[in-house]
Design goal:
Length: 112
């Protein structure tokens, strides 16, 4: 094998690191995007700004938004535990997490 110069070795190492790291970074970004999509506040905002007329989809969106509002009201009015699953709050962002969680589902900080 021919002798590679330091620039060629550095280039190959850089490409290898990029190929190894980028799929992981993209996976975590996909997870955060999916968590953003399931946000109940997003559904409520869509319901508030939705002004396309009335058809079956509007009724479905209104139903989902009403369920979202009632779930938020129930969560806000309940204490820090729901049924058999106690919840804890993250010190960094205030997100409620199950007591067994090691990391916050909102900001990914380690819970105490």
């Amino acid at each position: 094998m021919a002798d590679l110069g330091p620039l060629a070795v550095a280039w190959r190492l850089g490409v290898a690191v990029f190929v190894i790291v980028m799929p992981t970074v993209m996976f975590f970004q996909l997870l955060r995007f999916l968590e953003w999509l399931r946000d109940d506040e997003l559904i409520a905002r869509m319901d508030e700004h939705h002004d396309l007329g009335t058809d079956d989809r509007d009724g479905h969106l209104a139903t989902v938004a009403a369920q979202s509002r009632s779930a938020r009201a129930h969560t806000a009015s309940s204490s820090d535990s729901t049924g058999d699953q106690p919840l804890t709050r993250c010190d960094s962002c205030g997100t409620r997490n199950v007591a067994e969680a090691t990391y916050c589902s909102g900001c990914l900080e380690q819970l105490e």
